[in-house]
Design brief:
alpha/beta; two-stranded antiparallel sheet
């Protein structure tokens, strides 16, 4: 495993993190989830990402149980706050009340005294930005959070947040968690250039485009039974399952074969080529998937290979 700094901090995280969205506490049995987390740790992964909204707290509970036998200083634990955790008027968003209450509940579910990284899962236009940032800073001062980050925040909001934090002496945002893959490159135009200036690292999710970049979904064929595309969360994949997208992805197969790697490894290596990426989050339902994905570490792609990837995907790339 290789390790990178989380943004401009001194914290080093594994290039590949294990996530729990759409998997742990729900579609994957707890025993399998624990096995995946333990195998990831054995392979050098020290970064585990979850969120309170994932299965409404159940994912946090599974992750917490799996990590309980590992020394707390051996891993970096990240969770998030924003989405509705109840039906009340204050059960969602980034108000001081919601942040404080949800942080306490996440700590309890995870079974820890602090989280290494606490992230705002989405922007909250209904709460003053300074209120959110002050609440996060207070959690840092209380020792319940070591670093603060965000997820899917646009460049202008990142810039404004860091300005306020600098003026008020608040602990700064050190990371952003955006969607990023060969097929979805929206962050490259504004978020990445600004983040490099501000010292914010990207912790990217969906580097395999919900499994589409593994090549297991083929144009004109029904998705394999039991795959994510046939499950309750298939709506997230609708744009990816078009035949023209799947045809473009299949054109990546000879590139991967020429390198002697799987298509999944090619996709992860492509994401890690960007040095502003601190870590790429992958999911896994069995230890073998963990092993395959982690084998992408250290795979370098030449400029010729990068051009071949762009040519294969063509107009299917969302920028």
């Amino acid at each position: 495993m290789n390790y990178r700094h989380l943004g401009a901090t001194g914290l080093r995280v594994s290039e590949i993190a294990l996530g729990s969205w759409l998997t742990y506490g729900g579609t994957v049995e707890d025993e399998a989830a624990v096995a995946c987390i333990h195998r990831a740790y054995e392979l050098g992964c020290n970064f585990f990402d979850t969120a309170n909204i994932y299965r409404h707290g159940e994912a946090e509970q599974v992750v917490g149980r799996a990590l309980r036998g590992i020394d707390r200083d051996e891993y970096v634990l990240a969770t998030k706050v924003y989405f509705a955790m109840g039906t009340g008027p204050n059960d969602r968003g980034l108000s001081r009340k919601h942040i404080f209450e949800q942080c306490e509940r996440s700590l309890a579910r995870l079974g820890v005294d602090y989280v290494d990284l606490y992230q705002c899962h989405r922007p909250d236009p209904e709460t003053p930005l300074e209120e959110t940032l002050r609440a996060l800073d207070d959690l840092v001062r209380q020792g319940k959070v070591l670093y603060v980050g965000v997820s899917e925040w646009p460049a202008e909001l990142l810039d404004e947040a860091r300005r306020i934090q600098a003026e008020r002496g608040f602990d700064p945002i050190v990371s952003n968690q955006p969607q990023y893959s060969m097929l979805y490159r929206v962050i490259e135009s504004e978020v990445v250039p600004l983040s490099k200036q501000l010292g914010i690292g990207q912790i990217v999710w969906a580097p395999l485009a919900q499994g589409v970049l593994t090549g297991k979904y083929r144009p004109g064929e029904a998705p394999p039974e039991g795959s994510r595309a046939t499950g309750p969360d298939a709506g997230f994949m609708r744009w990816l399952m078009r035949d023209d997208v799947l045809e473009a992805v299949q054109r990546l197969r000879p590139i991967a074969e020429g390198l002697g790697v799987s298509m999944a490894q090619l996709a992860i290596a492509w994401v890690l080529r960007e040095q502003n990426v601190s870590s790429a989050i992958v999911g896994a339902s069995r230890p073998a998937q963990v092993e395959e994905n982690f084998a992408a570490v250290g795979l370098e792609l030449s400029e010729e290979i990068l051009r071949a990837i762009d040519q294969a995907l063509g107009q299917m790339v969302i920028r």
